[in-house]
Amino acid sequence: MDETSFLAAFGACLILAGVVLLVRSRLFRARAVRVSGRITKLDVIVVENGANVREATVEFTTEDGREITTKGGDIGSRRLRAGSPVKVLYHPGKPTVAYVEGISMRGGWVGGVLIGFGVCNLLALVLILLFGPEGAM
């Protein structure tokens, strides 16, 4: 596989992965049930690059009356603490799959970033093919 084929395949894979993540995020939001809840615990996790991830444990009541306590995902830099009220989106068939609303749920923003990198990669490939050292096509 030559360099141009690799760049084309890499860019296409980035775009495909981004689209999958965006679609999954949108489908989850469309199917999820939205309820009021509260944060019961915050865990600060230090990741490889030294950044802190603030993961919330949330407590909420499902529409059928079950009390659920589960991880609610990364809350980002929002100024929330234990006891803060939040809106929770949960999967109706699996209520322990839940996310604090408005935060990076199931890779939505990551999908957009991957699509952006993939498009930039393909644009760079086109520019290289048009104006690269071997001249115009």
Low-confidence stretches: none
Count of helical regions: 2
Structural class: alpha+beta
Average pLDDT: 87
Largest sheet: 5 strands, antiparallel
Largest sheet, spatial ordering of strands? 3-2-1-4-5
What is the radius of gyration computed over CA atoms, rounded to a whole number of angstroms?
20 Å
**Overall shape:** elongated
Distance between the termini: 19 Å
Count of beta strands = 5
- Helix fraction bin: 25-40%
Strand content: 25-35%
Give the H and E element order: HEEEEEH
What does this entry look like structurally?
The chain has 137 residues and is α+β, with helices and mostly antiparallel strands. Helices cover 39% and strands 30% of the residues. The chain has 2 helices and 5 strands; from the N terminus they run αβββββα. Strands 3-2-1-4-5 form a 5-stranded antiparallel β-sheet, with no helix packed on it. Strand 2 and strand 3 form a beta hairpin. It starts with a helix and ends in a 6-residue tail after the last helix. The relative contact order is 0.23.
Set out the fold topology.
Elements: H1 3-31, E1 33-46, E2 52-61, E3 67-74, E4 85-90, E5 98-100, H2 108-131
Antiparallel strand pairs: 1-2, 1-4, 2-3, 4-5
Helix pairs in contact: 1-2
